[in-house]
Every structure is written in structure tokens, then in C-alpha cells.
Design brief:
Nucleotidyltransferase, domain 5; about 325 residues; binds magnesium ion; binds adenosine-5'-triphosphate; single chain; globular; about 40% helix; 10 helices; alpha/beta; 10 strands
Length: about 325
């Protein structure tokens, strides 16, 4: 079965084709980062308009690049939510209209399900059940993944998400938006010189809180008489270490508590080199395994939506052809 995937929940237009037999056939992505950078965050109306401008050319480009006639598509998976309503409407309208004209089913996908299943597109994926650490721009969750469609959130952030903390800290250091990657590159040049808080490290539960960490960085920045590049690198390094330590410790706790042995990591912060190293080192010491998506599939993309659609087809979780978007939508 060939599944077309469409992702338009926020500021990336992603289109992909996933074959349940052959795997990923191709994918294409347009990021709107340049469009929103001047505003320091995503402007919803600009995002919707840009999706409208590019969704058809991107689809046509992918179909011609992969030599796929439209009538070979068996089903269309699209992000139904959560996300920006206008942006979601572009992808869902496109998916439903195309599916109607081709007389094929649509499969509405929860954006976070796309993220958390993305590591399973790689070679030698873990078997169900497993634990997932979802660390994206809007979420920081530890999820017990029982099977496709059955998710129990066992840890969550009480305030800022990990990606949000990276972005806000990057902004304090003048690194632009979104600053997660820039901050991690700067951190490589610095030393762990500042002792920043490890929020909720000893709380005994699996929840996170990152807004205090961001405030600690703000106070640290204000306390500097001169914010040199050297000091900025040390702050970035200390921040990254604090956040990495908390995420690693909570994942270990969650694996111990659930008696699961595999962790998959997904979402944009899952691309972070230090986090990957820390999880790999600490989990292997306890004979746990950790799985990551390739870097390009950590952040939003169409491939993870096509793949989630294919998994749902495989598991016979078909959709009833209704057409609405869900800007807010609980994963569990
Ligand atoms: N190497 C990196 N290190 C740390 N953070 C990173 C890195 N690369 C990307 N990020 C962060 O990942 C986030 C974007 O990830 P993603 O696209 O998964 O989030 P989102 O789609 O905006 O949020 P959500 O999926 O929760 O709605 C941004 O906050 C970005 O700064
Ligand atoms: Mg996302």
C-alpha cells in the first residue's frame, strides 16, 4: 500500500510517500524559518499563506521526482492536529480533496504520534511496547507506547518544553530563532563553568519544569558586566548540561519503573548531540537500548506522517472520512 503523507501543523510543509512493503519512497520539505525569523516566533497567518503557496508545487515535485502517478496512491495521511488551525486546514483540505477525487481513504494523524513513531522508520527498530521521550518545540513528554494508537503519558512538562527552553535561552544569548541548534553548536566551544539548577531532578516523579532554568540563565546574563563570546559559550554549555542531565535521569527512572528496556527519542531536541551521547552512555550501562530517528526526521516532516498513516493502515485503524482539524488534541 502506498501512503501519501502531508504535514502542515506549524511552519514546515512536508510531503512524503511511504510504501508499506518498500519503505520510504521519497519526501520533500519546505521550512518557513526565514519567513518567521524577523518576528522571533511563528506568525500563524503567514504560516497558513505559505503552506497554501507551496503545498501543490511540493506535491507535484515529489510525485514527478519519484515517478509516481497520482492514481498509485492508496491512502492519504495528514496531520489533523495539534497545531495552528489555519496551517492544519491547508493540509487537511488538500488531503481530503485529493482523496475524494481519487476515491481513496484519508488517515488523520496526531502530530505527536508522527514524532514518536518516526524512529521506527530506521533499520532494526524496537518492538512494542517501548518508552518514548518526546522532546520538541512544544512538548516534553515520556510516553509508554503500548502499541500503535495506545499511548500513556507518564511524564510531562509543567511549564516550558525542552525546545522552548533551548529557544528562549538562545534568544537571551542573541542567537536568533529558533536557536536550539545554534545554542548546541556554541555549547561545544564552552565549558561547564556555571552551576545552573536541575529542575525537578529529585521530585520523585517523571515530570519536568524548565521555566526556572530559563530564568536562571536570564539572571546569569544580567549579572555579567560584559557578555563576551567566551562567557556566552560557557552559559550555553552549562545550560545544555543541566537540561541533558534532567532528561537522562528521568528517562532512566521511567525505564526502571515501567520495566521496559527500549527508549525511542523524537522531536527536534532529539537531534541534540549531547543529549544523544548522554542517553546512549547512561542507558547502555544499564543494558537499556536507545533509538533515534535520523537527524532530518527529528523536526517536523512529512515522512513521519506518511509512516504513521502506514502503521495505522497496517493496524486497520481506518478513518471515517470526516473533515475537521484539532488545534488542541490530547495524545492519550
Ligand atoms: N540540535 C538541537 N539541539 C537542541 N534543540 C534543537 C536542536 N535542533 C532543533 N532543536 C529544537 O527543536 C525544536 C523544534 O522541534 P520540532 O520541530 O520537533 O518542534 P515543533 O514541531 O515546533 O513542536 P511540537 O512538535 O511540539 O508541536 C526547536 O525548539 C529547536 O530549537
Ligand atoms: Mg513537531
Amino acid at each position: 500500500m502506498l501512503v501519501l503523507g502531508i504535514e502542515t501543523s506549524c511552519d514546515e510543509t512536508g510531503i512524503a510517500l511511504y510504501d508499506t512493503e518498500k519503505g520510504l519512497i521519497g519526501h520533500t520539505l519546505h521550512s518557513q524559518v526565514d519567513l518567521h525569523e524577523a518576528y522571533g516566533g511563528v506568525v500563524p497567518e503567514l504560516a497558513s499563506r505559505d503552506h497554501i503557496r507551496l503545498i501543490v508545487p511540493l506535491l507535484e515535485n515529489l510525485l514527478s521526482k519519484t515517478k509516481t502517478p497520482k492514481d498509485r496512491i492508496d491512502a492519504i495521511a495528514y496531520t489533523q492536529g495539534p497545531g495552528l488551525s489555519g496551517a492544519l486546514l491547508v493540509g487537511s483540505a488538500m488531503a481530503e480533496a485529493l482523496a475524494f477525487s481519487l476515491e481513496i481513504p484519508t488517515i488523520p494523524i496526531h502530530h505527536l504520534e508522527g514524532h514518536l513513531l518516526a524512529p521506527l522508520m530506521e533499520k532494526n527498530p524496537p518492538a512494542f511496547p517501548f518508552l518514548a521521550l518526546l522532546v520538541s518545540g512544544g512538548h516534553t513528554q515520556i510516553i509508554h507506547v503500548k502499541k500503535v494508537g495506545v499511548y500513556e503519558i507518564i511524564g510531562d512538562t509543567l511549564d516550558d518544553a525542552a525546545g522552548e527552553a533551548f529557544d528562549k535561552t538562545a534568544q537571551l544569548l542573541g542567537l536568533g530563532y529558533p536557536g536550539g541548534l545554534a545554542l548546541s553548536l556554541l555549547a561545544e566551544k564552552g565549558h561547564h563553568h556555571f552551576d545552573l539548577p536541575r529542575p525537578l531532578l529529585h521530585s520523585g516523579d517523571l515530570n519536568f519544569s524548565f521555566s526556572g532554568l530559563k530564568t536562571a540563565v536570564l539572571n546569569l546574563v544580567r549579572a555579567q558586566t560584559l557578555l563576551t563570546d567566551h562567557i556566552k559559550a560557557d552559559i550555553a554549555c552549562s545550560f545544555q548540561l543541566a537540561i541533558t542531565e534532567v532528561l537522562t535521569k528521568k528517562c532512566l527512572m521511567a525505564l526502571d519503573q515501567t520495566h521496559l528496556t527500549s527508549l525511542v527519542v523524537s522531536g527536534g531536541v532529539g537531534a541534540n548531540k549531547q543529549l544523544r551521547q548522554s542517553l546512549q552512555e547512561n542507558l547502555s550501562q544499564k543494558n537499556y537500548s536507545v533509538f533515534f530517528p535520523r537527524l532530518e526526521f527529528c523536526t517536523d516532516n512529512g515522512a513521519m506522517i506518511a509512516f504513521a498513516g502506514a502503521m495505522r493502515l497496517d493496524n486497520s485503524l481506518k478513518h471515517d472520512l470526516s473533515f475537521k482539524v484539532k488545534p488542541r488534541w490530547q495524545l492519550a
